[in-house]
Amino acid sequence: MKCVKKSGLWKFFCLLSIILSCCGILSGCSGTAGNSEIHEEDDDEAVKYNVDYCGAEDQFEHARDSYKAGAKVTIYYVAVGTDTDYTFYLDDEILNAEYSEEKGYIIKFTMPDHDVTIRVESVNTMTDPAGQTDPAGPADQADELREMLINESGCAENEVICYIRDDIDGDGTDEAFAIIGDEPDEDFNAVYGSAWFVSERECEKLFDSSGIGIRNEIRFMTIGDTNYVIFDDQFISENYSWVYYVSDKQAFEAPFSCMGSVWPDESQPDRFTITDSSYDMCMDSSISAMIGHTWKKYYFFYDKEEDRIHEYAGTSVDAATVEYWCGRDLVSEMVPDGDTIDSVFMRGNGLIVINYEHNDDDGSIYYYHFIYNMEKESFVDDRGLETGEDPLNGIYLSCLIPGLASYPEVPGPGDIVWYGD
């Protein structure tokens, strides 16, 4: 953490630059809904109009049969399938639906003064980054890669549970990824076995399942010009994503692999999140160990100029700088008297974080944090959803992967600028 004084003119241009930069970054952020849904106030005397869901009402959450004209309606489409694109219609008008990992597709509209139809159209894309509809390739092309996989691994044909093949790196030749093992567990849809990579150059086992099994699905994520292949190693209460890319007919593990659960930001190209799982709510003095399970999102983006992935890391700032940016003395307001502030920092995507701890009489230490979203001008929870002003449990790190950290330069009051570590 460093801070230096600059001239007033320099401060003006720097502040203007960071505000414009934050606006550019934040204006594209997903506008996911908070914990409550906005519907019309109940009015028994108001005329209501019916909504026809085309027989699919059970695929939506918070969907009502009717609304009064002018009501602001928010419903969620939760029957989201793998490798499927969706288009939503209000009568014949396409609705601009947003996507949330927690909520599914978020659909908002204003109820007109007549009955309406909500219709869903879907197209299966088959988890193929090149747009090929058959992941096994053209029907007239012998699948030498699958034969190579079976011969090299020594598995039986029916032990190849999940298999995809495509030109992953765009060099004109196909590669394949597979999950080999037992039939998927019915409760968790997980395969106890191993993940494999095959090309005309090599056949390689990537890893063995460590938990209850590998999720019976191979996912794709494109960041910049690179196609990533994702396997999810499942445990009872957490997932770890193994992430690979292909170069010169070889599979390489991504630098953010196995750091948590990786999911692309469906509303923002070249961005993704990693959900970290930690036991960090309390240092229990009776056992001298950390207890309490938490899950927190960390945010990543692709820098086109540098051609690399960065994490939105947090630059340490003081309470005066927090007030300077959001207009509230959040540190003094939110941290209880007698508790200890551990860290205060600001991420490049406009999140202000306050970590503090409470020491109990028995020697135990409880850890809490707040997250303030400057774009939404409200507090958000660990999933990024708007929330109230109650503290969140656990310790929110300034960065999850130090090797990818990108710290913003943050102007503060009195011609001070804060720099990241």
Structure explained in plain terms:
- By secondary structure, the chain is mainly beta.
- It is built from 4 helices and 33 strands.
- The strands form 6 sheets. Strands 21, 22, 23, 24, 25, 26, 27, 28, 29, 30 and 31 form an 11-stranded mixed beta sheet that branches. Strands 13, 16, 17, 18, 19 and 20 form a 6-stranded antiparallel beta sheet that branches. Strands 4-2-10-6-7 form a 5-stranded mixed beta sheet, with no helix packed on it.
- Strand 6 and strand 7 form a beta hairpin.
- It is globular and about 65 Å long.
- About 13% of the residues have low confidence.
Give me the secondary-structure topology:
Elements: E1 2-5, H1 8-26, E2 48-52, E3 60-61, E4 66-68, E5 72-77, E6 84-90, E7 93-95, E8 98-100, E9 104-110, E10 116-124, H2 144-153, E11 160-166, E12 175-181, E13 190-191, E14 193-198, E15 203-208, E16 213-215, E17 219-223, E18 226-234, E19 239-247, E20 250-253, E21 261-264, E22 271-284, E23 289-303, E24 308-312, E25 314-316, H3 319-326, H4 330-334, E26 340-347, E27 351-359, E28 365-373, E29 378-379, E30 392-393, E31 405-406, E32 410-412, E33 416-419
Parallel strand pairs: 2-10, 24-31
Antiparallel strand pairs: 1-33, 2-4, 3-5, 5-9, 6-7, 6-10, 8-9, 11-12, 12-14, 13-16, 14-15, 16-18, 17-18, 18-19, 19-20, 21-22, 22-23, 22-28, 23-24, 25-26, 26-27, 27-28, 28-29, 28-30, 32-33
